[in-house]
């Protein structure tokens, strides 16, 4: 375990009072926070194991145990995300804290204020908000179902092959970007189900997913052949939202 993890757990333990954890205060205490023995009891581990964890020794901490620590230490969504990040573990309740993120109206307001095609994707690359410019550009994707998925559109819709210039290269890059984006969460639901569905329905997706290629979503020039608007070129810019980092704002700015 890293020293960052050790220091963080120790600091959070010392910030939680016995009363906050539902324990009697009682007696003289050197610190206002929980004792190691008390935290170990609440998490249902041995005091020795917890001591070694706080000392940064190479002990094993499962995702389930870290989740229990996060609960007992009453971590915020940001603190919980940091805990799993420094522990290099996947959060078993990943995506369950979306209520603390921006509301749907706020997301809609963000994209509506952008004078260019813009949309917001969640971890599964479902579009959760998009503006009228994006609807006009992506007919067959953003003018349909309530939570349209970009990968389903790219690989399962014939319209995407006509719209996206150099479709094979863009589709291959999209798979590599998706792998980089979801990282170790690929085995978790609902991502695992989405990957299995696409691999079963699309030979190209299965081939490129099995190739294990990884590329960053760095943006760049995007070219389209729109049935009504003709040839279009955009510079893609992708940003992550600070309050809910798994959400990505994608803007297609007109190329000069």
Break the fold down into its secondary structure elements and pairings.
Layout: H1 3-15, H2 36-43, H3 47-54, H4 63-72, H5 77-87, H6 104-112, E1 118-121, E2 127-130, H7 132-137, H8 150-156, H9 158-163, H10 167-182, H11 191-201, H12 203-210, E3 220-226, E4 230-240, E5 248-254
Antiparallel strand pairs: 1-2, 1-5, 3-4, 4-5
Helix pairs in contact: 2-3, 4-5, 10-12, 11-12
Commentary on this structure:
This protein has 256 residues and is α+β, with helices and mostly antiparallel strands. It has 2 domains: 3-93, lambda repressor-like DNA-binding domains (434 Repressor (Amino-terminal Domain), Orthogonal Bundle), CATH 1.10.260.40; 101-254, Beta-Lactamase (2-Layer Sandwich), CATH 3.30.450.180. It is built from 12 helices and 5 strands. The chain has helices at 3-15, 36-43, 47-54, 63-72, 77-87, 104-112, 132-137, 150-156, 158-163, 167-182, 191-201, 203-210; strands at 118-121, 127-130, 220-226, 230-240, 248-254. The protein has a 5-stranded antiparallel β-sheet with strand order 2-1-5-4-3. It is elongated and about 75 Å long. The chain starts with a helix and ends with a strand. The mean pLDDT is 87.
